[in-house]
Amino acid sequence: MGLDLIYILKAIFIAIVEGLTEFVPVSSTGHMILFGSLIGFHNGGPGAQEFASMFEVVIQLGAILAVVVLYWKKLSGAISEFFIFIFTGGKKGQTGFKFGINVIIASMPALIMGLLFYKSIKSLFKPSAVVVGFIVGGILLLVIENRFRNKTSKSGKKPTVDVFDLTPMQSLKVGCFQVLAMWPGMSRSASTIMGGWISGISTPVAAEFSFFLAIPAMIGSSGLDLFKFDYSIMNPTYAVALIAGFVVAFIVSLVVMEMFISYLQKKPMRIFAIYRIIAGIVLLGLSLTGIVTLTM
């Protein structure tokens, strides 16, 4: 069986979309679903629907690899300290251990919800749900940023400016907000950053913690999809598409992450919120007028 080069090009296009949107608060999953529907990525042949659903989750591991590369020194140091703390009975490595516990705490809400409601969550992966997520998430982003971003609390406590200084309660709040991202279109990045603002975390640190939380979140969701995937439908075209998508998503994400952090240090995120709301309203209008169909 020969390779379907057109389908592979479509996969690369979706991977570029993933890399551009994974770490900015506009929902990478939502954009992949919308663009995939637009170019017929889910209709490429036998098993295309099942493969596309798996592909849109698994290539996010490419984006996660970009986090590991960009933050390798900080991550490797924290992981080393985590185990040093355990092996020395808490005499050394307190900072890394605290960070590791915070990541675990923040990851638990999404892990529990994902295991309990996997089928229900996957049933939401369609354009109509994405439009709702775009609009609702955009409005929340505007409201919460205006109310909480970089604000000093009533008690006079300033926002946390170091990811290693987060408290377990702050981590839990961020983790609870991450659950919102299970609705496609809400955006995991936006959800966790909003949770960070409400928890009293500065914007760059909230974004950085969001990057770190993406590692267990994406490994977990990708692992679950790979485990449940029907490999009898896999063919050479799908295999090449998956590998190419992974590599492209990694390269694009690596560039975007650095640009996004630089942007957050200087400017607010309302531009992303406005984009989401406008995009959602336009898509809803196109649907109501019958120009496009928002169901799959």
From TrEMBL:
Q: What InterPro entries does its record include? A: UppP
Cited Pfam families: BacA
What Enzyme Commission number does this protein have?
Answer: 3.6.1.27
The keyword Zinc is assigned to this record: no
| Domain of life of the source | Bacteria
Reactions that this protein is recorded to catalyse: di-trans,octa-cis-undecaprenyl diphosphate + H2O = di-trans,octa-cis-undecaprenyl phosphate + phosphate + H(+)
Name it: Undecaprenyl-diphosphatase
Taxonomic source organism: Clostridium gasigenes
